[in-house]
Automatic annotation (TrEMBL), chain A:
Protein name: DUF3558 domain-containing protein
Record key words, sorted: Membrane, Transmembrane, Transmembrane helix
Transmembrane intervals: 21-44
Native source organism of the sequence: Actinomadura rubrobrunea
Automatic annotation (TrEMBL), chain B:
Superkingdom of the source species: Bacteria
Biological classification of the source: Bacteria, Bacillati, Actinomycetota, Actinomycetes, Streptosporangiales
Name of the protein: Uncharacterized protein
Organism: Actinomadura rubrobrunea
Amino acid sequence: MSQASLRELASTQTGRIVLGLFGGVTVGALTVIVGQISGLLPLGEPRTLPAPCRPASVHALVPGGTVVRNDGGRTSAECGAMAEPPRPARLEVMVEKAWSSGRAEADHRRGCASLAGLGPVGRPPGLGDVACAATDRGVLPETTVLVRRGALRVTVRYASAAKDAASVERDAVAAARRVTASL
Amino acid sequence: MGSFLRVGSVAGATAVGLVLGGGAVYAVSGGSAEEDDPVRAVRSPCNLAARELLDDVVPDPVVLSSSRLAEPGSEWWTGADCALAPKGASERALTLRLERVGPRSEDVEPGKKRKIVVRPGTEEARSRFDAALSERSRPCALQVVPGLGDQAAACEGTDYDDETPAYRLLVRRGDLLLNAVGTGEAARRREPLRRLAVSVLEAAR
């Protein structure tokens, strides 16, 4: 559209309304896109996600281990730590903010369905209705806990060869509870 | 009064536009697209390996490291790997990587009218196996081994240091692929390694 026809359109009342409407659509769409990319949307969720290693008590769970990652951010946060033998252990915590809680809910459901490959999927205590967990038993017991809260999804995966499966599961669920509470 | 109405109607149209535009983008981004069924996670191959079979390959094994290869439900494939060493040693003797390939929808005639076909996981796993056969990666080029799982291939070469012998074995069973690399002493224990690989795939189903 040329500048002249824009000016002509703006000279009539109906034209101004049409321009206002289309301008509004453009600005509204851009605002939502920018809001989601920057993590300011969805409203009501924390604007920045703290680095999750400290709330997860990484040093208690992976004694003598190395923290590989500990990053916070606007749309995701991550913690990773591992220890080598004689006491091999590994902790991974991921926090992700989805574009809407519907999206987060769908991803959470997929994750829980996928966990069925590891063992019986249970509902870990103290994390509400929207959490699931499964434990891979053996020489290296490993528990994966998935939690959804609003548009946020928390994944905690903890493995330790120095503990039995029940202790690994209990510690992983406790870490997930602390991380979720810190958000 | 007249000018108030004029300004008000433009402002009202802008407000309606803001809501429409923002709402449309929000609905599109939040709406769940058609997705394939989530692929079932696989257990760690170290946990699937029977201890007595493992002992034949790596005596008194200790887990050196392990990892998950894809987040649950987020990809169309998933996997887990782990490395083992004999107790007291720090050099890995056996690396196991287990992958499950899930069904995947693909557009069979790109550019034309959309025609989506779901390829089952087994088919995808077969093409991954065939791709591995033609690749020239370390430690060596795979040759077909008959009679193991649904498809198997193996080769012997050297590890990254170009000195330590390494034996690489790839076995497919259904939608599962197991990659096993024995290094050092374990590279010579081929038969026990094959038995171990088959039993891991049996247990993973």
